[in-house]
């Protein structure tokens, strides 16, 4: 059976997350339903990451096995046509046939996320449900300095959900950079790692916001990490500020 890689973009507002659920709309279900409409096949797609309710994606990756070989552009355009007819806020940016050994989840080398915060007095209108709103300005430099104590291989028990199903809280965090965005008042937190724990990035974002507000210091973040206790974490940031930005895979030519 030919396997296709799907590069996916979506607005997570109103969805219960990536993973299919019986009683709530999900991104996975929307794409699988569109594929059924396209080629009449009932399929189960696998994504590179299971984003939570309200989380968005600029570069989610999934794979699907189809019974028939189709041109790449046909797969992309036909799925998109059915997504649009269903008024889903999901789009297939690219589709291409890949080797059957490619697995969107298990072949991934690194995952990249960005968390967006907008600082301004007025409430968000255009960016509502697409960023965290902060009425007060935040100290970006202090946030970035504090973030660096989290980079590396650590026990991240403090920064994962109590419902996290990962076997171990130990992860290697390759990048956690806080920087000014291209727009006035925009702050971006960029995180990269092979894998993340449930709510890990949102926990980072909520904790770093405390630093930006002057309520916590770098030493407080370091102490929270060392505590290995969920109660030591700052507030978990809202899901609408989080975006699954990209996934790295091995070069097929290597």
Task: Report what the structure shows.
With 254 residues, the chain is α+β, with helices and mostly antiparallel strands. The protein has two domains: 96 residues, Alpha-Beta Plaits; 139 residues, 2-Layer Sandwich (Alpha-Beta Plaits), CATH 3.30.70. Helices cover 23% and strands 28% of the residues. Strands 1, 2, 3, 4, 5, 6, 7, 8, 9 and 10 form a ten-stranded mixed β-sheet that branches. β8 and β9 form a beta hairpin. α1 crosses α2, α3 crosses α4 and α3 runs parallel beside α5. The chain starts with a strand and ends in a 6-residue tail after the last strand. The mean pLDDT is 96.
Amount of beta strand: 25-35%
CATH structural fold name of the largest domain: Alpha-Beta Plaits
Tell me the helix content. 10-25%
Radius of gyration: 19 Å
Succession of helices and strands: EHEEHEEEHEEEHHE
Number of strands: 10
Number of structural domains:
2
CATH homologous superfamily of the largest domain, by name?
Pseudouridine synthase I, catalytic domain, C-terminal subdomain
| Span of the ends, CA to CA | 24 Å
Shape: globular
Give the number of helices: 5
Assigned CATH class of the largest domain:
Alpha Beta
Structural class, by secondary structure, is alpha+beta
CATH architecture of the largest domain: 2-Layer Sandwich
Assembly form of the protein: single chain
Give average pLDDT, whole number. 96
**Main sheet overview:** 10 strands, mixed
Low-confidence segments: none
